Amino acid sequence: MKILLLGSGGREHALARALARDPVTDELLVAPGNPGTATVATNLPLDIADPAAVAAAATARGVDLVVVGPEAPLVAGVADAVAAAGIAVFGPSAEAARLEGSKAFAKEIMALAGVPTAMAHVCTTLGEVRAAMDDFGAPYVVKDDGLAAGKGVVVTSDPEVALAHAAACLDRPGEPRVVVEEYLDGPEVSLFCVCDGTDVVPLAPAQDYKRALDGDAGPNTGGMGAYSPLPWVPDGLTADVVDRIARPVVREMAARGTPFVGILYCGLALTARGVRVVEFNVRFGDPETQVVLPRLRTPLAGLLLAAARGTLRDADVRWGTGAAVTVVVAAHGYPGTVRSGDPITGVERAEALEGVHVIHAGTRRTGDGLVSAGGRVLCVVGEGDDVAAARARAYAGVAEISLAGSHHRSDIAARLEAITVPE
Ligand code: AMP
Ligand code: GLY
Asked: Is the pLDDT of residue 349 over 70?
């Protein structure tokens, strides 16, 4: 089988690694890819935000399956164009991708499907924002309605900070909307559900670290590290989320004539009042993919093709017994204005360590070697028999890497015994 994977971040390098080792994969193309994907696949220059260009490239190269990594091409209609060209595609239509593209739309679907989530008000003026904040009280949760690469959300107890974020969102052109939500208290879990329009197959839960600094301080980011499995998670959580959240949403989307094919990423909070959806994404999470896929024993390409073809029902998903931890090495300034072009050394030394591999997220190869080219630069992954062993390996790998001005969290997958699920 010939596969075209779209994207250029850490998630795509992790996906490429898994797809490349599947025996059914004869050829793997990654567009545009990065220096990491180039080690396991052939990179292809392509404007992946252009649906017609992607469909034409997939047709010209005789591709059997297109796998879409990031959300932006999905929201732009890339899956629709590829499907219209008669090629199997893993990723939802533009209409179904609105589950991530619009937080207000996601709230509407959750209400129709009876899915538990935070109470919310959709606001178009600062006056409405103020009223909603008064309604819910502190801490305030204020979200940009549209796509914002994980950085459109502010959670704060300072009303001025909350209002300033709302004002910045409402200042955008178009018809900007802001979602103000009830604060959800409790540990967060990311669960990826593979969907074929009708059936749902869950992958293993992972936990992401959203804040920039140790102790969950600092601004929200795209994610600074992750681990899987989650030893503290209650038995039955995955089955419960599939039954009460993923299946009802997939049924609702099918009933509307916009079936959901791809990953329904359920971002969850385990609160005292039960599981609540924090957000949906319509693609694999980054960096959670980097710790979920190394544990997957079922070949990935076959699973994604079954979802694209609507034959997931027979899928059998198996897991290894070990654990994986990833630590993100971020560029100077991330998640604000980042500095690019700093030389990176030590990747080979890190990868020479047992149970360590390095995923490229924002790198570029120049005549002088590897340099930084993005906010999240590398994801160092450690694998081991349990989370503690995997964590030790991930940090041993990080210690080998040099990147001027970089920062990483030192508490990824630490102190898991302190995580409690409220009763
Ligand atoms: P989102 O983009 O909606 O996933 O939000 C990013 C992060 O903000 C989440 O992973 C949470 O850590 C935090 N967050 C979002 N919504 C809420 C909420 N209602 N209550 C508490 N934290 C939230
Ligand atoms: N790690 C969070 C996300 O992928 O949205």
From this structure: yes
What per-residue confidence (pLDDT) applies to 151?
58
Q: Is residue 281 part of a domain?
A: yes
| Interval 186-196 mean pLDDT | 97
pLDDT of residue 212: 97
Q: Are residues 299 and 363 in the same domain?
A: no
Tokens of 66: 């297109």
Q: Ligand 2 centre and the CA of 286: distance in Å?
A: 5
Q: Which ligand is nearest to the CA of 220?
A: 1
Residues 264 and 244 in one domain: yes
Q: How far is the CA of 153 from the centre of ligand 1 (A)?
A: 7
pLDDT in tens, 354-381: 999 999 999 999 999 999 999 999 999 9
Question: What CATH number is given to the structural domain containing 23?
Answer: 3.40.50.20
Confidence of residue 148 (pLDDT cuts 50, 70, 90): low
Residue 81 belongs to some domain of the structure: yes
Residue 316, token pair as written in the block: 């059998």
Nearest-angstrom CA–CA distance, 227 and 341: 29
Q: Which two tokens stand for residue 345?
A: 């050394």
Residues 308, 189: one domain? Answer: yes
The kind and range of the H/E element at 249 are helix 247-255
Report yes or no: 74 and 68 within 8 Å, Cβ to Cβ: yes
Q: Which residues line ligand 1 (CB under 6 A)?
A: 118, 141, 143, 150, 153, 155, 181, 183-184, 188, 210, 220, 267, 278-279
220 and 128 fall within a common domain = no
Buried/exposed code over 90-127 (b: 16+ C-beta within 10 A; e: otherwise): bbbbbbbbbbbbbbbbbbebbeebebebbebbbbeeee
Atom of ligand 1 nearest to the CA of 118: 19
Residue 149 has pLDDT above 80, yes or no: no
In this structure, the residue with its CA closest to atom 4 of ligand 2 is 285
pLDDT mean across residues, the chain: 96
Instruction: Tell me the CA–centroid distance for residue 86 and ligand 2, in Å.
Output: 30
For the segment 39-62, what is each residue's pLDDT rounded down to a tens digit? Answer: 999 999 999 999 999 999 999 999
Considering the domain architecture, whether residues 264 and 334 belong to the same structural domain is answered as: no
Q: Please give the residue range of the domain that contains residue 143.
A: 119-181
